[in-house]
Amino acid sequence: FYCESSTTAKFMIPLLCSVPQPFGIKTSESVLKEIEEFLFVYETYGIKFYQEEEIIRFEKIMQPMEVEFDGDLDICIAAGIMLALPLLNDVSIFKLRAPKRSEKTYNTILKILKTYSVDIKQPATMRYEISGKQKYRKRRN
């Protein structure tokens, strides 16, 4: 897909990598450079990617696992990861090292996930346990 915003790309990449279909992002050089700063996140989850000219191609689905990142991880990537993990085949654990920034944003993400019936546990302040094989569906009041 074509993306003019690094914010959108960082948010969408984990979500798109939760399904076993290759895709590519074509964008400007400045957005590519910003995305490249976070390729370590995708490598951590076992996602295969390569760059050809103005396109970064992603080829392998995210793997459910336990990961830990610095608490200042870009919130757009973190939100994309938290939205993608419930769609994977098994339980994933997402941890952040202190200090965690954007506490209110993480709380909002949790509320959104729970609104759509996603089973996510937070046994510690910076640890999220997310069951796999879930579907998003609007919770009934």
Keywords:
globular; 34% helix; 141 residues; alpha+beta; 4-stranded mixed sheet; 3-stranded antiparallel sheet
Short recap of the structure:
The chain is α+β, with helices and mostly antiparallel strands and 141 residues long.
Structure description:
This protein starts with 5 loop residues before the first helix and ends in an 11-residue tail after the last strand. The chain is an alpha+beta fold. The radius of gyration is 15 Å and the shape is globular. It is built from five helices and seven strands, in the order H-E-H-H-E-E-E-H-E-H-E-E. Helix 4 links the parallel strand 4 and strand 5. Helices cover 34% and strands 23% of the residues. The longest helix has 13 residues. Helix 1 packs parallel to helix 4 and helix 4 packs parallel to helix 5. Strands 4-5-7-6 form a four-stranded mixed sheet, with helices on one face.
Shape: globular
* Uncertain residue segments: none
Instruction: Give me the side-by-side strand order of the main sheet.
Output: 4-5-7-6
Secondary structure category: alpha+beta
Provide a count of the helices: 5
How many strands, what sense, and barrel or not for the largest sheet? 4 strands, mixed
How far the N terminus sits from the C terminus, by CA atoms, comes to 36 Å
Mean pLDDT: 88
- Indicate the proportion of strand residues: 15-25%
Helical fraction:
25-40%
Number of strands: 7
